[in-house]
Structure formats: C-alpha cells, structure tokens
Automatic annotation (TrEMBL):
PANTHER family xref list: PTHR39434, VOC DOMAIN-CONTAINING PROTEIN
Short name of one Pfam family: Glyoxalase
Lineage summary: Bacteria, Pseudomonadati, Pseudomonadota, Alphaproteobacteria, Rhodospirillales
Top-level lineage group: Bacteria
Transmembrane segments: none
Residue ranges constituting the VOC domain according to the UniProt record: 3-133
Record-given protein name: VOC family protein
C-alpha cells in the first residue's frame, strides 16, 4: 500500500491559493493559518505556504525540459490517477484552466507506460502535472 506524500509549495497569496485549490480544484481544506493551508489532494497532504517575497504579481520561476515534443516545466508535482479519474479531472479542468502548459493528451500511445497527462500552473506559478494510467501497477514504471 502506498502511503500519502506530503509536499509544500510557496504561494504569493493565501486567499488566491484557497480559491484555486479549494474552490476551483475541489480539494478539501484541512488545518490552516494566516500563512499556510493543508489541502487533501487525492489523499495526499498538499500544503501551500505564503511567501510574501514573491509579490502579488510574481510567479515561481521554472525551466522547461523537452519531453515527448513538449516543454515540461521543472519543478512540478502532481498525482497519478486511474485513467477514468484522470479523464474526469481533465474535463473539469478544461472549464477552469485558461492556459494549460500542456493540454490534456495521451502520450506514449500504444507503448509501455501509455498515460494521460496534462500540465498547468496555479496562480503563483507552481507547475502541476496530473497523470492517468489504465493499469497503474503495470504501467507506472514501465520501460
């Protein structure tokens, strides 16, 4: 059994993060203060911490690496889902995300490790990737 991960990211505005992760993405809020919020991201503890040095108009810097013909943002984090849940999330996000870095699509089609993937950023510029596999146990680490 996998155990939940814990990841913390910097955000420029706590209320903006609460709106994005809580209201738009639909992640339940756990403990919080004026400077941080715990969110339940598919059973994992995803925490946003206020970093006032970013500034209200600032964004987290990132680089992009070429993968499968796309510029993949680094760093990034996210969750691996079963394919049906990934498809539902992709449909929901098409109505929420204005500018995907990489639109939802299936990569490595017909090959080991075939997966749905999509990349986008939160309002602070934190890059997120959500993946979907038809058989997570078989395909997640397929070579």
């Amino acid at each position: 059994m996998l155990t939940p991960f814990h990841i913390a990211v910097a955000v420029r505005d706590i209320d903006e993060a609460r709106e994005f992760y809580g209201r738009k993405m639909g992640f339940a809020e756990g403990r919080s203060s004026d400077h941080w919020i715990d969110f339940n991201m598919y059973g994992h503890q995803f925490v946003v911490h206020l970093n006032e040095s970013i500034g209200k108009d600032g964004k987290i810097p990132q680089i992009k690496n070429a993968v499968d013909g796309h510029g993949v943002p680094v760093p990034h984090c996210g969750v691996v889902l079963n394919f049906e849940d990934w498809e539902r999330l992709a449909e929901k996000l098409r109505g929420i995300i204005d500018n995907f870095i990489i639109e939802p699509y299936v990569r490595f089609q017909g090959q080991p490790g075939e997966q749905g993937t999509m990349f986008f950023t939160d309002p602070s510029g934190n890059a997120l990737e959500f993946k979907g596999f038809r058989d997570i146990e078989k395909d997640l680490f397929a070579t």
